[in-house]
């Protein structure tokens, strides 16, 4: 519905600018997660011709046109990169139609005032009335180079000789936004121009393909009480050799003692779409994987193949059927026709090419070349993968023990191995998180997520129950986020948390926002209006301090036996995030430091271009009791700065004897953002 128009709106139109977003197409602007509600800048302009003298931004210009006469008008648009002109049939934003545009791919552009470069730049004649105001909208995207500009012009058909830029006397505001905060968005028009193709999944990105891992939280949890009561596995002591309680670490040395876990099956966290031949997977010269065959090597291979064939032939003692004999009788030697042997003749397209050159290769096992050490040089590798030969013996031994406790009857049948996470301990044994889907005697499907331990001393993969290493499926997870003057990101965080609640129905989580007196929005009011089942809000004064803000949130938590997740504001969470944090945090034993993927400029969770943040530990799950034991956040040293406080906390966690579980986490993203204006003091 159109807003109430006022005469004082004449002479200007609304402009919304979206900064720090790469790409030159309007489709890329629409993928911006702040678009169209939360621009970086809200302002006005007095004519439909402007240049911001900057790069990597997008514009949404909207308001009303006031024709100076009755008649048929032709519109034209020009811009540095792509742009679109939409015009309504009246004053309603609901009746918009695309009438002219510059390009679709992001590579098209025009010079300022060049209205005839592309046929799409000019509209068909549109009949307008001088008695009516018409809602319009201009979408413009500027890339990283070239002259940024966008202009809209018109001409009265058969009257005007040339296009004229639309001036102030023929435009007016849609709404006066001057008194509003960034968080006030109810007035922003929602139109066909602003909501085209906002989410596009690129099938070529393997990590974006659907996986049962991502929806395991929907299954019914196999009751842990049942497993404890029946003592499915024999108990065993769990004391990994890699914990370093009391070890005198130097500052930030703890990073060297964190190792990656292995996963099964392939979760496709390797960023294959971001790799080049020079990536850390491959040698400098990838041709080393090829062995050029020579006549001598070919002859050796023929001899070896002939010997292998003869051996197979000797072993094959089955008599041939009559049909098989007739097939073999009718066969011709390779290259022979009915009349004469087939003659080969080279056609020399390129005398320098060897058209019959063949090569030898061996199956390449990249995973066998990797170790569980964190390699800070590699940011596209993804999780270490386990072979099925490692996993299935453990799984089947577990299932056998499970059914033995039911008098040997097949009470539970394995339906699917959804996820296995293995932490290798070369001295004592390995820990496995088994996540299975099983069926019971009634055919019901149940989810089973259970830690088992396989000591090295056992001759076979016989799992036991690691005493004390049991995750709590009902633990409350508290997400703590300190903020200051980041309205558009705070709204996005709240919306993302609402999505988790809607898709999982999980009420055992809490969003805690510690707010350093934000002036661009009412954070508390936004939380009150949300659908979140639980939240806490505290207002702080002074300059932004991440460590102090996190500690304030920690102090709000009354239950020491709940989980704290130290969080960042610019995060997109997988739907399974709450459950994943619970599974990888064990009170008194283990913390969780998932690796997040940093999205590139212009990338979204639905195309996932970016890199893994392998050296960051600021996103951390830990039981509050364990965090208290290690001393909490270091608010004394990290007072007026942030960066490094995560590594310092990691040092203390490791020295306390806790494990740090570390995996690359699917669909876990850090949004691209600039630091321009961040945490305005």
TrEMBL record:
Reaction(s) catalysed (UniProt annotation): an N-acetyl-beta-D-glucosaminyl derivative + UDP-N-acetyl-alpha-D-galactosamine = an N-acetyl-beta-D-galactosaminyl-(1->4)-N-acetyl-beta-D-glucosaminyl derivative + UDP + H(+)
Organism listed in the record: Scophthalmus maximus
Enzyme class: transferase
Keyword Ubl conjugation in record: no
A GO CC term attached to the entry: Golgi cisterna membrane
Recorded coiled-coil stretches: none
PANTHER family, A to Z: BETA-1,4-N-ACETYLGALACTOSAMINYLTRANSFERASE 3, CHONDROITIN SYNTHASE
Family statement drawn from the similarity comment of this UniProt entry: Belongs to the chondroitin N-acetylgalactosaminyltransferase family.
Residue ranges of domain PA14 in the record: 8-169
Annotated compartments: Golgi apparatus, Golgi stack membrane
UniProt-recorded name of the protein: Beta-1,4-N-acetylgalactosaminyltransferase
Keywords: Golgi apparatus, Membrane, Signal-anchor, Transferase, Transmembrane, Transmembrane helix
EC number, UniProt record: 2.4.1.244
GO MF terms, alphabetically ordered: N-acetyl-beta-glucosaminyl-derivative 4-beta-N-acetylgalactosaminyltransferase activity
Protein origin, superkingdom: Eukaryota
Gene3D superfamilies xref list: Spore Coat Polysaccharide Biosynthesis Protein SpsA, Chain A
Membrane topology category: Single-pass type II membrane protein
Function noted in UniProt: Transfers N-acetylgalactosamine (GalNAc) from UDP-GalNAc to N-acetylglucosamine-beta-benzyl with a beta-1,4-linkage to form N,N'-diacetyllactosediamine, GalNAc-beta-1,4-GlcNAc structures in N-linked glycans and probably O-linked glycans.
Pfam families attached to this UniProt entry: CHGN
């Amino acid at each position: 519905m159109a807003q109430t128009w006022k005469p004082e709106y004449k002479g200007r139109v609304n402009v919304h600018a979206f900064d720090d977003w790469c790409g030159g197409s309007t489709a890329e602007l629409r993928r911006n997660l702040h678009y169209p509600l939360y621009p970086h800048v809200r302002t006005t302009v007095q004519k439909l011709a402007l240049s911001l003298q900057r790069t990597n931004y997008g514009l949404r210009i909207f308001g009303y046109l006031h024709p100076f006469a009755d008649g048929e008008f032709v519109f034209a648009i020009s811009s540095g990169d792509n742009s679109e002109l939409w015009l309504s049939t009246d004053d309603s934003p609901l009746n918009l139609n695309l009438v002219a545009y510059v390009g679709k791919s992001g590579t098209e552009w025009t010079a300022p005032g060049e209205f005839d470069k592309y046929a799409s730049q000019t509209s068909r004649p549109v009949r307008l009335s001088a008695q009516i105001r018409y809602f319009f909208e201009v979408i413009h995207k500027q890339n990283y180079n070239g002259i940024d500009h966008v202009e809209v012009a018109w001409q009265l058909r058969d009257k005007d000789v040339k296009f004229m830029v639309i001036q102030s006397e023929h435009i007016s505001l849609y709404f006066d936004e001057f008194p509003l905060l960034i968080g006030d968005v109810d007035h922003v028009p929602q139109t066909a121009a602003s909501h085209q193709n906002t989410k596009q999944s690129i099938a070529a990105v393997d990590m974006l393909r659907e996986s049962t891992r991502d929806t395991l939280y929907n299954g019914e949890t196999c009751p842990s009480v049942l497993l404890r009561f029946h003592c499915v596995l024999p108990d065993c002591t769990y004391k990994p050799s890699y914990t370093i309680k009391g070890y005198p670490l130097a500052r930030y040395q703890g990073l060297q003692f964190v190792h990656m876990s292995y996963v099964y099956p392939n979760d496709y966290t390797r960023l294959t779409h971001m790799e080049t031949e020079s990536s850390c997977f491959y040698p400098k010269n990838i041709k080393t994987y090829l062995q050029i065959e020579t006549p001598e090597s070919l002859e050796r291979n023929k001899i070896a193949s002939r010997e292998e064939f003869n051996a197979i032939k000797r072993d094959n003692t089955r008599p041939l059927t009559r049909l098989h004999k007739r097939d073999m009788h009718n066969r011709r030697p390779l290259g022979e026709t009915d009349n004469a042997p087939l003659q080969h003749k080279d056609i020399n397209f390129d005398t320098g090419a060897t058209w019959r050159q063949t090569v030898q290769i061996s199956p390449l096992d990249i995973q066998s070349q990797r170790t569980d050490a964190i390699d800070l040089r590699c940011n596209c590798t993804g999780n270490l993968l386990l072979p099925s030969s490692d996993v299935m013996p453990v799984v089947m031994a577990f299932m056998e023990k499970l059914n033995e406790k039911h008098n040997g009857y097949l009470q539970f049948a394995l339906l699917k191995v959804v996820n296995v996470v293995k932490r290798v301990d070369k001295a004592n044994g390995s820990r496995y998180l088994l996540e299975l889907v099983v069926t019971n005697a009634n055919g019901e499907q149940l989810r089973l997520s259970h830690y088992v331990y396989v000591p090295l001393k056992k001759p076979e993969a016989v799992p036991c129950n690691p005493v004390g290493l049991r995750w709590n499926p009902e633990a409350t997870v508290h997400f703590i986020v300190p903020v200051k003057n980041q309205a558009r990101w705070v709204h996005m965080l709240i919306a993302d948390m609402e999505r988790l609640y809607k898709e999982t129905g999980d009420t055992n989580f809490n969003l805690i926002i510690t707010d350093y007196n934000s002036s661009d929005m009412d954070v508390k009011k936004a939380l009150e209006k949300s659908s979140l089942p639980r939240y806490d809000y505290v207002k702080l004064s002074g300059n932004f301090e991440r460590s102090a803000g996190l500690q304030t949130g920690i102090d709000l938590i009354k239950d020491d036996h709940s989980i704290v997740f130290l969080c960042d504001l610019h995060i997109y969470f997988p739907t399974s995030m709450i459950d994943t944090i619970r599974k990888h945090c064990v009170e008194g034993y283990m913390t969780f430091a998932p690796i997040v993927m940093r999205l590139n400029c212009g990338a979204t969770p639905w195309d996932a271009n970016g890199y893994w943040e392998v050296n960051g530990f600021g996103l951390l799950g830990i039981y509050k009791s364990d965090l208290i034991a290690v001393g909490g956040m270091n608010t004394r040293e990290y007072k007026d700065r942030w960066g490094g406080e995560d590594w310092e906390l990691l040092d203390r966690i490791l020295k306390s004897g806790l494990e740090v579980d570390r995996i690359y986490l699917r669909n876990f993203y850090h949004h691209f953002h600039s630091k321009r204006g961040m945490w305005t003091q």
